[in-house]
Specification:
Elements: E1 14-19, H1 25-34, E2 38-41, H2 48-57, E3 64-67, H3 75-87, E4 94-100, H4 103-113, H5 125-135, H6 137-141, E5 145-148, H7 154-166, E6 174-182, E7 193-196, H8 217-224, H9 227-250, E8 254-261, H10 267-279, E9 285-291
Parallel strand pairs: 1-3, 1-4, 2-3, 4-5, 6-8, 6-9, 7-8
Length: about 300
Amino acid sequence: MNKARTTPMTWARFIVLTGLSGSGKSQAIRALEDLGYYCVDNLPVSLLPVLAELSERQTEHHRVAVVMDVRESRFVSDFPRVYRQLKTNKHLRTKLIFLEAGHAELVRRFSETRRPHPLAPDRPITEGLSEERASLRIIRTMADKVVDTSKLNVHELRQQLRELVSGQKQASQLVLTVLSFGFQNGPPAEADVMFDVRFLKNPHWVPALRPQSGRDPAVAAYIRRQPTARALIKRLNSLLRWMVPFYVQEGKSYLTVAIGCTGGRHRSVYVAEALKRELSDLKGVSARVAHRDLAKGTR
């Protein structure tokens, strides 16, 4: 079981997620968890009414999502009766989501993961898939929403579920962190993209500027007077404005652009601050700046 934070939802308090093996239920339940649902995977049918009753009694986990499928031997035979009874509780606002995909696509996914089908551990994948699809026909007709994942990547599936559950179209939001650092302290492990700005003239060698940082006006003016520095900011801004929207489109939630100089106090700090200002108006992006080594002092 996984505990998740709660956020306002309108579509359902209690979601049952089911469907064909390999259709993306694992990714779907993670998306619901991100939306504030308390999620349980592979719940036995006999425990469904118990969990539903518990979710009504307390407020900490008042939105619940469960995955149920043919991994449980009695799922096909018992689920329709139990679910119909659950639907009579209007306060619970129960919804059933059924995930499916084309036969060829499911075969491809199982071939890539090399996992056996739960209904055919000692038989060909195709036999297990055909048997499962036939056995789930009645349950499919009960679904409030059927989602075909054949042509959806992981990010598109998660986005579709977010929109379904929230009741409104949601734009992807990427948190862009421009991070300054010093190479003498090692590169940051969290960096997705990294730029080395040690070719700029170093304020460290100016005694009056050494104790200051790239945030101070005197240091900023020293670096800004360099034509190379102005050209660098312009080109990095242009490159990142071209790159970042592709990360947003792909569904990435976080992107760290690391800017490194020797000590991480002057040049990288100035460039990181300048880039954060330049990129703050990017659509679908929340830009922030961080300075890993700024407080470490001079050497």
